[in-house]
Amino acid sequence: MNTDLTTNQGATGVARLTVVCAILALEAAAIVIASQVLLDFDCRQVALYGACRALRLSLVQALCLAAGVVLYLTARASARVNLIRIARPRAEAAIWSGLHVLGVVCLFLPLAILPAPAFAERFAALLPVVAAGATLAVFGALFWLAPPAPLWRWLRAQGWVLPVLIGIAVLLPPLADRAARLWEWSPLAESTFAAVAWTLSFATDDLTVRPEEAIIGARGFLVAVASQCSGIEGLALTAAFLALYAVLFRDTLRQARFWSVVFPLALATSWAFNVLRIAALILIGAAGSPDLALNGFHSFAGWLSFTALVLIVLSIAHNLRWLQRDAAPRSAAIGPPDAAERILPFAVFMIASVAVNATFIDPAAGYPVIAAALVGALWVARAALVRIEWRLDAVALAAGLAVGLCWVVTAPPPAADPWAGALGPVALALWIVIRMAATVALVPVVEEMFFRGYVQERIDDGRLFRRVLAVAASVAPFAALHDRWAVAAAAGLVFAFVYMRQRRLADAITAHAVANAVVAGVAWARGDWGLI
Fold this sequence. Notes:
- It is found in: Cell membrane.
- This is CAAX prenyl protease 2/Lysostaphin resistance protein A-like domain-containing protein.
- Residues 431-518 form the CAAX prenyl protease 2/Lysostaphin resistance protein A-like domain.
- α2 (49-75) packs parallel to α13 (299-318), α11 runs antiparallel to α13 (299-318) and α15 crosses α19.
- The protein is globular, with a radius of gyration of 25 Å.
- It has 532 residues and is mainly α.
- The protein starts with a helix and ends in a 6-residue tail after the last helix.
- It is built from 22 helices and three strands.
- β1 and β2 (215-218) form a beta hairpin.
- Helices cover 75% and strands 2% of the residues.
């Protein structure tokens, strides 16, 4: 009897989970079509360019997160079973589904009643409505799926993997967006243009190729291929999800074969797929459907197609017996026992930063929101802070001073902060106190707990190769988070070596805090808050 009951509950959970996910997928598709295809305007047409760009990028981040969750649930049968168990029907689900519907209405209403020019003109006034709608839609959907308390327990039970996955989903699109500068790297640009031209030559004789202007076309239909169409996003997405797959299936995957054969083939396939995509869209436009072709060049369309491609590649790899081996007993976990506490504050930091960029006219003005989120995250992870061996170290202090001075000396000329003039004297003073306190006391703890205390510590097992890999893996993403990435990379190297010296996290935090204190002090003296 108990077995039958459990089976029925599981079947009910699967059915409900399937229905809810199908509804969410349809809603997401409708939002994408409405906001990226039917609402034909460029974010450069609105005053809040950063907020508009962040909102559109959030759709891509949601796509990456959904793909990552699918991959994770495929790899973790116990997580999948437990999620199905807590997704059973319940009375209060109607409340959450109602809030979700209200959020979706808030998202669609401005899109439905305003034409593109009016929407662009009133974007600043509509932004709070759209942001509130997105918040209600997301949390309403989560708690419609499962109650808050069981869902939170399920998330905590997953350990470090899900926070890392969330971080990857949040960081991957903006990092790939920054990596689009490689489009200016002539070998990549020339090879892509040449491949597209060669592909089009089989379909038409009326071909226009002007690489110096990044223009390709056929039969009078010409397109300027922007950096987001270069294929670098597809390469970044492919590399990230292949790495995630290798980690999730590390017990059954033949790693040497995967990295030496599947990884380069997948990257080559991603590049070739982008060439075929550009060529196909140009031919569609040349055949008399320019609107359809241009919509296909949307950034989201590219991300969607690349996501589908990488999932197909991983599905094929997952079913190749040549790549699989029998599961071995898992060895003791490498890395700190409080991994989740070291990851959580950084994940919150990234999510809060994206939210502020999406909702504030000038993201710098919203920094107190990020600071509040960091305080809350560090309170939740306070057990990890208590276990840190706190002591001052002369080498750490000197290293931090050197990094801070280097950051100040190499800084570009100060730029105006128009938002600061809009604040009253009391509000500005409060902002300065919060900004400086967070820069010195919060950010170093959050970043060093993740980059040195988790990433570097987890990879470094004492061998030279692993040590070099650990330093590179902790420094590269740290540098990518900063506009001045070269100086940030040098700072990351210093913090990594300070940490390695005695394997003491407090030393890296101290060096980072001293460096930030120097920069914050100079920023305060100059009134140049862009320096931080």
